[in-house]
Amino acid sequence: MKHIVGFSGGAASSVVGKIVAEQYHNDTVLLFHNTHTEPADNDRFRKDVSDYIGLPITDYSDGRNIWQVFNDTGLMGNTRITPCSRILKQERSLQYLKDNQPAILYVGFTVEEWERAQRTYARYLVQCIDVKFPLIEEQISKDECLHRIRNCWGIRLPYMYEWAEHANCVPCVKGGKAYWGLVYLNANDAWKFAKQFEKETKNTILKDGSLEETLPDCLRLAKKWLRDKALKKNQAPLIPFPCECAL
Asked: From CA 134, how far away is CA 169, in angstroms rounded?
């Protein structure tokens, strides 16, 4: 039996990798699907975690980045549809699992993300694939994952956690206006590329205008999000309806 961890390389999937490897070290797989759209520091973090757990990363990737997928499918990823996540992660995960049965898939949704877990469970159920969510089972929160990695493992978290909620693609087309304002401030090259892609394809990622047109509003909301974070106030999520890109 293979015990396959959906290893996106964020904090939650890293803690799941450690939990599963402690029980089934010789049969644990850290399964990664590269979107070629992430910051280099995410790669550094994945390697640090892989070394700490003592298992290699199994890279089973499509080979394209998200923009190539949008071009090839004719579908612009946005807050409503995500061909990037479906093709680069979900379909790759499913194919690997089918090719490596019997196996159990372990996904790093935290206790706060039980709704995402339900959707993922249902999607794999119809494929007769067993899925487990160790963080939900053990009532482990996102903050607890960050604490374990930073303070117990002694590993530096991805730089993205200084300005975003997840360590994933930059940009993530599911992000709202505050998110895009933060991308402009912290990953300006990625923002410029997305802006140019909108112009070339005559599509928009945000529903009420192009990135260039909505920039003032995006920056206003981003600065409010940062103020709320500094004051430890409740913050609106940067990605209101995240896809199951943890896979």
From this structure: 24
Spatial distance between the Cα atoms of 142 and 145, rounded to a whole number of angstroms: 5
> Cβ of 115: how many Cβ atoms within 10 Å?
10
Taken in order of first residue, the domains within the chain and their CATH numbers are: 2-158 (3.40.50.620), 160-230 (no CATH)
- Which residues does residue 2 pair with via DSSP β-bridges, in sequence order? 103
Residue corresponding to tokens 């909505």: 214
Question: What does the pLDDT read at residue 232?
Answer: 76
pLDDT in tens, 127-179: 999 999 999 999 999 999 999 999 999 999 999 999 998 899 999 999 999 99
Using alpha carbons, list the distances in angstroms from residue 135 to 36, 144, 171, 223, 236: 27, 10, 26, 32, 23
How high is the pLDDT of residue 244?
A: 61
CA–CA gap between residue 117 and residue 147 (Å, rounded): 22
